Amino acid sequence: MIRLKGTICMTDDQADKGTVGYLFEMGALKRGKRSGWWIAGVKDPETIAEHSFRTAIIGAVLAMMEGADPAKVALLCTFHDTQETRVGDIPWIGRRYLEAASNERVTADQVSKTPPAVAEGIKAVVHEYENGDSLEVLVAHDADKLECMLQGMEYLEQGYRNAQEWVDTTRAKLKTPSALALAEAAQGMSSMEWKHTYLG
After folding, report:
1. Where is the HD/PDEase domain (predicted)?
2. Residues of the chain with pLDDT under 50
């Protein structure tokens, strides 16, 4: 049995099934598309999971550059869009017409069948990303924007000219010196630059 404040809440079997259910739900992020790119004309945009993966990598790198905690930033980035299994990826233009539940409310529902330690841990991560003002939170938000900028640049290379707006608007929202420096360095670079560097 799992106990919370002296009350029997659920059996171990129920908790395990609840946790696995949450993990299956997170798998939907591998299939959910980042719908804002459809507005830019991208026919087969990246998935939410693909965005979150590179955001976590960028976040860890930016944290190292900024003197923040890389593991904490990567954790914040990993969970930052997990709510989109239930509400989808609502593009900025759609937010003018919709009132979606807060990410914290969605998260609470998502983890309601998991053990208390898991539920409280995930809710704390999401709450901090949404409301915190630490350097780690600032870096995590910059990582999200820088990833969008880099993805936009890759779509530009593929011929989606409307992606330029995403590149410009996300770059303009960057705040940390390191994110600004990387955004500046990315301008004019090819997404295959890394390959040419090592192959000569």
Report:
1. 44-158
2. 1-3, 5-8
